[in-house]
Amino acid sequence: MEITAIAQPFQPKWIVPSYNTLIVVTACVDNAKARESITQVLQHNTHRSAPHIWHLDCGNSKRSGQVLLGSHLSTNPNDYDFEALGCFRLPAPTIQQPDLLVSQPEELADNNLSCEQMALLNSQSLSINQRVAAEAFDYLLQLTTGKLRRFATYFDLESGSGKSLYTTQVSIMQAILLGHSCANALFSS
Fold it and tell me: CB neighbours of 45 closer than 8 A, spacing ≥ 6?
């Protein structure tokens, strides 16, 4: 298994799908522009075959985070129908949570924030990255062993709560139709 870390701005042209190959682009980025660029690689997947490219998006704030996995850009619920063996397609992280593509104030070129203000906006607890990494690793393990049962996990360290969306027809429809409001609804139920 080939694993490569890239510590520079992502270029969608780097990803070239090939027959009988699984590519998982794991995004640990902190801005909308980078996520948009990474999401573009999912255009290679068609609805006629199982996806060759997956996007695993890892994100966090100070004490909460999410891990989202997807393979397709469609917002049409009929494109995610279950077949005899289950669902082979999952909505892209940016379909599940569209606000990932909304630039934050500190990302804007014309922001008037001081370095101190930006540091406060982006402060993180000492354990949040470990929690995100553990969830992401489990997603990769489950995907590559054919045992994937969930596609979105949200957690909050402050309250100790967490919730996942499982690969069921209802959860996939909820993720597509409700988008980013889905994440908020998870913790209120």
Answer: 17, 51, 52, 53, 71, 72, 89
